[in-house]
């Protein structure tokens, strides 16, 4: 995850440098053009946020309104940033100013192009951190990786979380609460909740690993068979 953030930071640094080359003719020095180009990055963040919001909106009209609003906000922030740099570096010298850099089409196309290019480059390369659950075991706060949990066993007043590492963690979380915390897990018995990615069905039992076998109760038999055989 940290590497991905680093690569994305470098990607947007390259974006600012490329835009700076386009702005170069409007400024006395390259670093002035680069600072001006860097001031467009807040507009990038706003546009990305707007795209994410519109993606979640199912209603077409509302989605269009969101895109229009964030597109205009992106344009406004870009104009204010460029105008500030123009005032500071060029002292509002109209002859030195290249009006291409305030062309709304140029701003939208350049920002939009790099946003979608970033998405294409980094798609499928996210280093997603495994999901975790936090419990108190032996009076200590313990974080467990969900994909390492093989099954949860209920033993009356407490439960035990068994891991692929061979470790087990006693805790006070009820098995019904575990079931809500781990919706991808499969209940096979009033006392057992298993990770289906770590389990196989063998007759009337569920096998965990190579040697652990757990019983399937009659109340859960149909559901368990449908899951493994259906």
| Strands in their spatial order, largest beta sheet | 5-4-3-7-6
What's the Cα radius of gyration? Answer: 28 Å
Helix-strand category: alpha+beta
The tally of structural domains comes to 2
User: What is the distance, rounded to the nearest whole angstrom, between the alpha carbons of the first and last residues?
Assistant: 36 Å
The number of strands is 10
Low-confidence stretches: none
Description of the structure:
The protein has 230 residues and is of the alpha+beta class. It has two domains: 2-122, no CATH class; 132-229, OB fold (Dihydrolipoamide Acetyltransferase, E2P) (Beta Barrel). The protein has seven helices and ten strands. It has helices spanning 2-23, 30-38, 41-56, 60-90, 104-122, 175-181, 218-229, and strands at 132-137, 140-145, 149-155, 158-163, 168-171, 186-189, 192-194, 199-202, 205-208, 212-215. The strands form three sheets. It has a five-stranded antiparallel β-sheet with strand order 5-4-3-7-6. α1 packs antiparallel against α5 and α3 packs antiparallel against α4.
Topology (SSEs and partners):
Elements: H1 2-23, H2 30-38, H3 41-56, H4 60-90, H5 104-122, E1 132-137, E2 140-145, E3 149-155, E4 158-163, E5 168-171, H6 175-181, E6 186-189, E7 192-194, E8 199-202, E9 205-208, E10 212-215, H7 218-229
Antiparallel strand pairs: 1-2, 3-4, 3-7, 4-5, 6-7, 8-9, 9-10
């Amino acid at each position: 995850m940290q590497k991905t953030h680093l690569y994305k930071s470098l990607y947007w640094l390259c974006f600012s440098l490329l835009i700076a080359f386009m702005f170069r003719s409007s400024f006395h020095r390259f670093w002035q053009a680069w600072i001006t180009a860097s001031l467009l990055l807040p507009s990038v963040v706003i546009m990305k946020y707007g795209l994410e919001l519109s993606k979640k909106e199912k209603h077409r009209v509302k989605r269009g309104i969101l895109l229009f609003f964030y597109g205009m906000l992106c344009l406004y922030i870009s104009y204010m940033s460029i105008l500030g740099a123009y005032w500071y570096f060029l002292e509002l010298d109209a002859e030195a100013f290249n009006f291409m850099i305030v062309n709304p089409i140029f701003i939208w196309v350049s920002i939009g192009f790099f946003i979608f290019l970033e998405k294409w480059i980094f798609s499928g390369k996210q280093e997603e951190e495994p999901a975790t659950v936090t419990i108190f075991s032996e009076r200590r706060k313990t974080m467990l990786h969900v994909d390492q949990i093989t099954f949860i066993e209920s033993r009356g007043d407490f439960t035990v979380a068994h891991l692929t590492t061979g470790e087990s963690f006693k805790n006070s979380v009820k098995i019904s609460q575990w079931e809500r915390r781990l919706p991808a897990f499969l209940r096979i018995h009033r006392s057992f909740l298993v990770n289906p990615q770590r389990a196989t069905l063998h007759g009337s039992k569920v096998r965990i690993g190579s040697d652990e076998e757990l019983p399937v109760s009659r109340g859960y038999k149909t559901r368990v068979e449908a899951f493994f055989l259906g």
